[in-house]
Structure formats: structure tokens, C-alpha cells
């Protein structure tokens, strides 16, 4: 009896469709955990990079020097530093080109930073919809397997004259395992999707705040330059 109710035993006794449901849910669980680990590393690295760059930015370093440092490792910068690089590059280009008016320079600079912001947020949110999909559909896939398994159990039960609990239990158990596997795949996906979404939102707010502060600094620089003239 114990051998029949073991997971492996119930899996092999299940119908082909229920086996496919179980294998599908197992595959979805593996994929979601792989994405969870990968996204956790990416978001942690983005947080660390932003903190380090922000400390460097507010340390009083000259902006031109900071820009040269970022430019020297252009292929490795991301997030907040990439926003700074894009904004300062456009700012310097517009000033060199003799853009008319302070508003024109700042508008072009802010647009350049908005593009970098969108690119950074897209990178952070990459694959999060997959976690949301796994979290939302896994219980229904598992429920489908359960319904199908219970239906087959009752069909088989109707073909015998005398039904016993021992005859019904394995079929019901193998059907319920599909629901359990659906929840096993869905719960971590939902938890980490919400967690990662919150962290991405906080990073995006930090990026936007930095853009506003950086814009204010550049705006002040232009005003000083015009006052000196």
C-alpha cells in the first residue's frame, strides 16, 4: 500500500495525460527557479552598482572627470551610471553645437536620460512576465490534471460491482498530486514576481530621482555660465 501511494508509484500509475501534466508542471517549476536565481543576481548587482555610483557622484568629483571614467568603460556601465553618461554626453554635445537657449539643452539632455532609463528598466524587468505566467496558470494546469484523473478513477470505479476505499484511494491520490504540483510551481513564482517587481520599482524611482537631481545640477551650471558671460 505504501509503495502504491509513493510519488513515483502514483506517477507511473497515472494516465498518460496526467503524466504529461505533471511533467509540464515540473518543467515550469524548474524554469521559474532558474529565472528566480538569475533575476535575483541581476537586481542585486544593479542595486550595488547604483549605490556605488551614487556615492561616487555625490563625493564632489568633477563631472567631466566622472564622465571620462564612465566613457573609458562604456561597455560595462549600466543603470544609474548609464543614465548619467547618456545625459552628460548629450549635454556636452548640445553645448558644443551651440544649441539655442537653456531649455533646448536641458530638454535634449533629459530625453537622452529617459531613453537610458527605459532601457535599464526593461533589462531589470526581463523575464518577470514569465514568472507571472507560471504563477497564474500553474494551478489551473494542475487542476485540469486532477479533474481528469478523478474522472478516470470514477469511470474505472463504475466498471466494478463492489467499490472499496483501497480501489478509489490510488486514483484520487494520483489526481490530487497534479494540483499539489501546480501549487508547488505557482507559489514561488508569485512570491518572487511580487518581490522582484517591488525591487525594480524602487530602483526605477531611484533612477528618476537621480535624473531630476542631475538635471538640476546641469541647469545650474548653464545658468552660471550664462551669468559669467
Automatic annotation (TrEMBL):
Superkingdom of origin: Bacteria
Pfam families: MotA_ExbB
Keywords: Cell cycle, Cell division, Cell inner membrane, Cell membrane, Membrane, Transmembrane, Transmembrane helix
The MotA/TolQ/ExbB proton channel domain, residue ranges: 81-206
Compartments (UniProt record): Cell inner membrane; Cell membrane
Listed transmembrane segments: 16-37, 140-160, 172-193
Keyword Coiled coil applies: no
GO (cellular component) term, any one: plasma membrane
UniProt topology in membrane: Multi-pass membrane protein
Principal subcellular localisation of the protein: membrane
Keyword Cell cycle carried by entry: yes
GO biological process: bacteriocin transport; cell division; protein import
Family under the similarity heading: Belongs to the ExbB/TolQ family.
Subunit-level organization: The Tol-Pal system is composed of five core proteins: the inner membrane proteins TolA, TolQ and TolR, the periplasmic protein TolB and the outer membrane protein Pal. They form a network linking the inner and outer membranes and the peptidoglycan layer.
NCBIfam families assigned: tolQ
PANTHER family, alphabetized: PROTEIN TOLQ, TOL-PAL SYSTEM PROTEIN TOLQ
Function: Part of the Tol-Pal system, which plays a role in outer membrane invagination during cell division and is important for maintaining outer membrane integrity.
Name of the molecule in the record: Tol-Pal system protein TolQ
The organism of origin for this protein: Aeromonas molluscorum 848
Amino acid at each position: 500500500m505504501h509503495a502504491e501511494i509513493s510519488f513515483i508509484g502514483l506517477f507511473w500509475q497515472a494516465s498518460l495525460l496526467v503524466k504529461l501534466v505533471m511533467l509540464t508542471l515540473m518543467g515550469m517549476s524548474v524554469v521559474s527557479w532558474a529565472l528566480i536565481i538569475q533575476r535575483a543576481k541581476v537586481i542585486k548587482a544593479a542595486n550595488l552598482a547604483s549605490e556605488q555610483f551614487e556615492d561616487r557622484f555625490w563625493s564632489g568629483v568633477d563631472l567631466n572627470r566622472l564622465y571620462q571614467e564612465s566613457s573609458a568603460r562604456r561597455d560595462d556601465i549600466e543603470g544609474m551610471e548609464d543614465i548619467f553618461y547618456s545625459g552628460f554626453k548629450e549635454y556636452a554635445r548640445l553645448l558644443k553645437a551651440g544649441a539655442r537657449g537653456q531649455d533646448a539643452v536641458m530638454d535634449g539632455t533629459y530625453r537622452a536620460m529617459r531613453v537610458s532609463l527605459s532601457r535599464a528598466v526593461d533589462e531589470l524587468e526581463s523575464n518577470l512576465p514569465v514568472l507571472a505566467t507560471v504563477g497564474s496558470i500553474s494551478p489551473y494546469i494542475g487542476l485540469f490534471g486532477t479533474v481528469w484523473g478523478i474522472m478516470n478513477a470514477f469511470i474505472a470505479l463504475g466498471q466494478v460491482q463492489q467499490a472499496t476505499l483501497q480501489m478509489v484511494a490510488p486514483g484520487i491520490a494520483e489526481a490530487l498530486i497534479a494540483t499539489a504540483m501546480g501549487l508547488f510551481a505557482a507559489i514561488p513564482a508569485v512570491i518572487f514576481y511580487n518581490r522582484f517587481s517591488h525591487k525594480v520599482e524602487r530602483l526605477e524611482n531611484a533612477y528618476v530621482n537621480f535624473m531630476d537631481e542631475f538635471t538640476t545640477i546641469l541647469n545650474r551650471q548653464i545658468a552660471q555660465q550664462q551669468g559669467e558671460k
